[in-house]
Write a structure and sequence with these properties.
Length: about 575
Amino acid sequence: MLGALIVIDGVLVWRDLQPARVEVLAARDLLRKALQPNAFATPEKRAVSRGKITRALAKLTTARARIAGSNAISVVAFVPGLREQRAGMLMLLDDARSATTAVNNLLDSAESLIYRGQSRAGAVPLDSLQTMLDETDEAGTVLRTVQRRSSGLWGPLGDARHQLDGVAAAAAERLRQTSSALRGAYGFFGAHGPRRYLLTMMNNAEMRDEGMILSYGVVRFDQGEVHLDRRGTISDLRLDVPVSTAIPPGTEAIFGSSRPTALWQSVNATADFDWSRQTMAEMYRQATGETIDGVISLDIPGLAEVLTVIGPVKVAGIPKPISASNAGRVLLKDLYDGLSRSAPQGERREHLDEVVGAVFDRLANEKPDLVRLATALARASSGGHLRLWSTAPDEQQAFVQSGLSGGPSAVEPDRTFHLAVENRTATKLDYYVQPSVHQEVRFTGPNDVLVRTIVTIDNRAPSGAAASYQLGPDEYSARPGDYTAWVLLWGPAGAIQPASTSEAGLTLTEAIVSVEPGERRDVVFDTLIHDAVRHGELTLRLVPQPRLRPMDLTVSLDSRGRRVEGSTTWHGAWNQTRRMTWGVKPG
């Protein structure tokens, strides 16, 4: 009789448990969508996120009521080994509700920031920014504390617990990065007194590790108010002698001949962002006698992200408005069409400083949606199109932690790759050049891997074109459209690469290849990483070069001789840092 009762109760438990599980999984999916990176980007998306959060809370409330009110499930509270399951189920639902409520509070703070920001044009509401920072920290704390991987739930509910923990962990990491950025931004925006920053505009038609610096501005923040005090072409900031900034040995060996402490056009050839920005600050001081508090770097794709929020701007000398959709083509191609290499410098202006002036005028005199603007800038920073550097150590540390600053070696240097294709001519050919990358990974020992990186340089410049300022030829090329690619692969710190040098905290190997118009050429690098498999995992971290169009990236893992957890092939746009992780067990 007792056995029959247990069987009957088990059937009733399952009957009551299944609807609750459906509600939990539906709430999880709603919460995951509400926490997507762009979920707060526009008023419409915030309204959709609010609706998802409200529905998730309703489903969780219903699921808890089902379980708490189920007589069958209450009975298991008296059965040894099962009482923990009921308690775990209720804890799962309480944790999910706590996480969802924290996200809802964060959305309230975002709405408050928008409302306060729109009451004052050209200013960041620092008090609301502080409130949002507090709410972000609190939400992150909640999302970390609800992760209970040792809860011991069985079967489908155990899976639900595991999936909720995964959602919470990913969201907590995004909030940690957001919190670091907000914490650094609070002082950066002049909360403690006026700040002045050098704004360097990077031209992606002539690539260094980033675009070449051809225009600049001086941005001032004071209690959240933003002003563009000065702008011009980089040739205005003349240097008679190199600055005294020490050049690290590896940087000197690879880039020293290009005079990175004397020429603005060479200062950012290295991947060491912090070194190049410190050097820029010293170059500006030597050229003007003025000290600055940091550097803001923005390229054309980053500028296009800002234009998605503020709309097109008109600039004298450019016949059509500059918009998010046409900024790359107009600024990096159309303005060069018809220009000869012998044209006077005044006719060869890139107009970037005028565009920057128009953008800042719009920001100062209108009332953009600040959360939408922050989301656009976050997209730009994820691809390296926006970078910040501050002389204040605590702000700089916050920017490094959030990914807004620091070179490729700032995180996991012994697992990091970075690739740059730089222009060795004086042309503006990078508008036409499209590199792609294929990494082939295979095991060479118990824990060692060999990574073969195949870089394909595709020169899409027109064949047989007339000589021009954009296409050349110049003193480094024979015909219009001839491209000389300086291909630089930074492999993990401590890795073995032929003909390598330690640079920017990583292992650098270079190659130079000439590519004619319409031609594709491959460059191959081999990297041996000892002890790449640690604690049963293989991880590679891949940091992109910020180009007008992101490189195409393929990573394939040869799993022969190993049992590998996770897909062995990844393909997509290399538009942000990609972290590849595989579980690895002996075959």
